[in-house]
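Internal QA ticket QA-208
Title: Verify multi-chain structure generation after dependency bump
Assignee: T.L.

Test input:
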Amino acid sequence: MELFKQFKVFQKQQKAYGMVLSIASWDSNTEAPKKCFPHRAEMLSIISGEHFSLMTSKDYQEVVNALIERIDEFDTLKKKEIITAKKALDKIVKIPKEEYVEYSKLINISQRIWEDAKEQDDYDIFKPYLKRIIEAKKQHIAYRTDQNDKYNVLLDDFEEGMSMELYDQFFGAIKEELVPFVKTVLEKRKDTDDGFITDTYDKATQKDFVEYLMEVFDYDYDRGLLKESVHPFTWNTHSQDVRFTVRYLENFVFSSIFAAIHELGHALYEQNIDPALDMTNLNGGASMGVHESQSRFYENMIGRSKAFWEAHYPKLQAMFKTQLRDVSLDDFYRGINKVDETFIRVEADELTYPLHILIRYEIERMIFDEGVDLEELPSIWNAKMKQYLNIEPTKDSDGLLQDVHWSAGMFGYFPTYALGSAYAAQIYYTLIKEIDFERLVRENNIEEINQWLKEKIHCFGSTKKPLEILEMVTGEAFNPSYYIQYLKEKYSKLY
Amino acid sequence: MELFKQFKVFQKQQKAYGMVLSIASWDSNTEAPKKCFPHRAEMLSIISGEHFSLMTSKDYQEVVNALIERIDEFDTLKKKEIITAKKALDKIVKIPKEEYVEYSKLINISQRIWEDAKEQDDYDIFKPYLKRIIEAKKQHIAYRTDQNDKYNVLLDDFEEGMSMELYDQFFGAIKEELVPFVKTVLEKRKDTDDGFITDTYDKATQKDFVEYLMEVFDYDYDRGLLKESVHPFTWNTHSQDVRFTVRYLENFVFSSIFAAIHELGHALYEQNIDPALDMTNLNGGASMGVHESQSRFYENMIGRSKAFWEAHYPKLQAMFKTQLRDVSLDDFYRGINKVDETFIRVEADELTYPLHILIRYEIERMIFDEGVDLEELPSIWNAKMKQYLNIEPTKDSDGLLQDVHWSAGMFGYFPTYALGSAYAAQIYYTLIKEIDFERLVRENNIEEINQWLKEKIHCFGSTKKPLEILEMVTGEAFNPSYYIQYLKEKYSKLY
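Actual output:
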């Protein structure tokens, strides 16, 4: 139909702008020289402004709204494209362009300010920016709804269908079950000989091992690229171009390896999306939560399993003879699954990780739903750390200044990290009923697991909602008890 | 003035599009995965189309034309910005947008076709595309002028002020003086023990040496980046972001090293341009010829001089002990300046290089000014090789299929390669009168030479015309006899 054709022309145009902005951002985050940024920021704000104008133009709005009125005339896929477009439109259409551009600039500056604040361990530097970002976010929400549940809007933006009510249940279970379980585990801790974890591993060999892992997991280099950057991340424009980055740390080799497998999980998801969706607005993963479920699945369920290292530990041992010669597979497996109280989320083990997210969720909820004096944030943060993990940071750079997210305006994002891990556990219990997971991993046949995940989850891109996919795969609604069960089973055996 | 402000807004907008397209092209030419290209081409053609629309919009035309009418009201710099804009506008304004987009696509496809043709050594694959490109170029020229001297338009596009008349004089001198001189040199050739040239040098150490050279030449990494790619090239958006690539060949180490110094010359030029010009349309080098004069100056006058290797040969020798232990500095110097008949331009030595360009100039002149049957090109090419270099290629991939330029529509570009070398020689004879060049090079004080070139040439960006700069620096008009003199002096000593 003519109208839908027009819609596709608009969509392609917007996509083209998105793509060049995305390539510029890849460049900025991996290799652009530091002095290029002032000019670059000025230039990119012009292109972003044009992008915004296209995404909110009267002509485009008319087409989308006309299609929505006739939505029943379209097949499922087109319907979904139209609805997704309408949702994206509603999200931004009421924001005045100047405010949008102003906010983009604020976000850009704030991230640099946050870096300084973190480096100088000085929350006061960041606080005024945090305040402005929160005010802007609240204003953006006010443009979209006159309801009072502002935080729900943000939660739904990152994970369609999720709300404070559902997250309260989820984090309630974590608080009730995991907080005491973590305490028990930590009490059982013994002094073990795991010095190999912090030993020195040369970067070049780490790189070789990660490249070996890419083969193990069947990553497609013809449609991707593995590169180094300060913070690991995955990047994609469509299924034919999905890249990710790794950071090699000489004295933290397992951080390098597991971050690599984590990003690889994100990347495999994107590479496995049906290429027919490439040029539509449905070509990315279903949600942050589903994405995280895949990265966590690869990182934890596969990467931190004993079966996996039965297959690959000899290789690693051969590559790092001095460091691992005297470390048995059992000791190695215990080492890479060591539970510990840590200040830093990204360094946390699989078991304590959700408690780090719990803290962030509760604070974001306070900011957007309950009201809180920003002055108090450091002490609130520290008290929660004490309550859940029994340690207290002595500096804010180990506390509420540790993550980039808030400086980038990403409120509502953190909860999806824990949610994704919980999705992963629920998916895991289905998967092990259907295929002989442990044997496949042990026999280095990841291919078959990839295939299962591709058919059940990846291929759909964002043609389905997150909770819909979960129910399709597992046959039931989201149920956090699988996550609790998984962690308790695994760590009861270990401790 | 209001009108000029409007002009700057338009200019910045165009620049922003130019920048994102440029970043995408950097990505495409260095690391983008091969399967991304079909979607990418489609998306980029949308952005290119928008860019073209902006560059030729009625509003913009009006502003530029109004400024031209009042040109005397502006200071020198603004005057130059306006004139440069007007010239750029006239170049494309009469091309219909569809034709422009069509031509861009043709160029994109043709380059891939050319690659195939070269690989399969089959001119017939490429011929129909070459024909279409030539027709399109002629049509573009017809939009701009009703004069008959089509090739002059192309020559002037790449090197303002140059024409067939001037190039005929230049290449006439080369034919008259250099062709016989090369013959004499080649006759004097003896069998020397220069096997070290084609020895195997491991890539990692080559890379270390090139990184060492970056320090020697004082390349600024805060405003740049050194990377690998299949074909070395320099890339820049403004003086704060100037990158270049190197290709390391295990059995052709001197190609890697001198290509690196060559690109470095281009890069230093761009980094040294007055940053006040960054956001204007005058922020690039003055012309292709002046650019090439700088890359050739660094590559040949510095890089292939004996003084340079007096300073750095011990370092290279220490890095490649096995290969160079028994090679004296004298033998090394002779080796890197070895004269030989070769089919391939990019592998040619400094002395025979201009003869390769002469052939291309004469053929382009035939195509655009005299008329020639494309069927005949291979035999014409081969006959000229025989005439000037006394060798005849047995396959077209060693002949007229060797260069990418024609498949990219770049006719009129080749002559600037020889012209740049001639500029370099003329500049060289001025420079050695003003500073103690040889001593500075020998004492590893390139900094002072950089400074001289920066003040005399680089800093001006394209605020001055090429022949104007040459006259400013050397005190006289372009004079090819310096080039002949330089080559005869150098190679008479060597042979």
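Spot checks passed. The CA atoms of residues 112 and 342 of chain A lie 25 Å apart.
Status: verified.
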